[in-house]
Amino acid sequence: MADLINTIKRIIYTPKNFFHHTSKKEIGLKEPFLFLLKLSLFSTVMALIMIALGNPGTKILEMVTGLHLDQQNNILITSVMAILFFGINLGLSFAWAGILHGWNLIFGGKGTYEQSYNLYVYAKTPVFLLSWIPIIGGFIFIYNFFLLGIGSMEIHQIPHKKAIIMYLIPLILLLLLIGFSFFMLITFAGDLPTMPITTS
Question: pTM, whole model, 2 decimals?
Fold first, then answer.
């Protein structure tokens, strides 16, 4: 546990030194996968706790959109989704790392797939630690992109300006997609007929 906490601290507080050290040694896939397994489990457990407490994020969504969500069904569905996502996320990590590796190669990256897997896993640390927190979790991915940029510079030897460009592009696209999705949700909610509330 002490090693896990120490690794997390190094990633969050001194990412440049962490990824520089990572690029200088052969770690393989086992160590980052076990790290991913532990943080994924933590994130899933925290998400289930938040769901059991009534999922404040859902209540905020109801206030913003005006939608009234069925809490009982919502708890069941989101709980099942959280558990499924735990397993799916572990499996897809290899595919996402492959995409990340290819993206780095396009911009002149010099690292291996194993190093790209390390970069993918460790850069997602803040996402696993904080994504379950309402509001804050929705923006923590920005720091994820920041860590990816630093990691690409250290591991794949991508120049500073090029690293900014290569992650600024998907970040902007992601923000536009989120903005568009939120706009459509608000619009959809505004078009829904108001349902009378009955009490027994």
Answer: 0.79
